[in-house]
């Protein structure tokens, strides 16, 4: 039986484009690879319009993987950079969970 991927629920704040949401979706599925047992995914993308902040962009993912909650987040100067860092961190956490 082939299970379909669950739809990603997005929470966004600030200036986040549809293109950036799509990039985050691709990054999450790339990080999870061929992981089975993904029952839910929530991604938060946030950009604070404050030029004094060194890392105003935040990307966070919370994934239910085989009944366990896997969470990763990253902050960066730009949202695309935060999404790239999120992908790397989520991949590490998901692979360490599968190794157990």
UniProtKB/TrEMBL annotation:
Domain of life: Bacteria
Official protein name in the record: Sigma 54 modulation/S30EA-like ribosomal protein
UniProt organism field: Actinomadura soli
């Amino acid at each position: 039986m082939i299970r379909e991927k669950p739809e990603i629920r997005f929470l966004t704040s600030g200036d986040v484009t549809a293109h950036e949401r799509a990039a985050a979706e691709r990054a999450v599925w790339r990080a999870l690879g061929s992981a089975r047992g993904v029952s839910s995914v929530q991604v938060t993308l946030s950009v604070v319009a404050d030029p004094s902040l060194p890392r105003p962009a935040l990307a966070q993912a919370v994934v239910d993987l085989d009944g366990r909650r896997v969470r990763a987040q990253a902050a960066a100067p730009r949202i695309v950079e935060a999404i790239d860092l999120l992908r790397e961190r989520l991949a590490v956490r998901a692979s360490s969970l599968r190794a157990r």
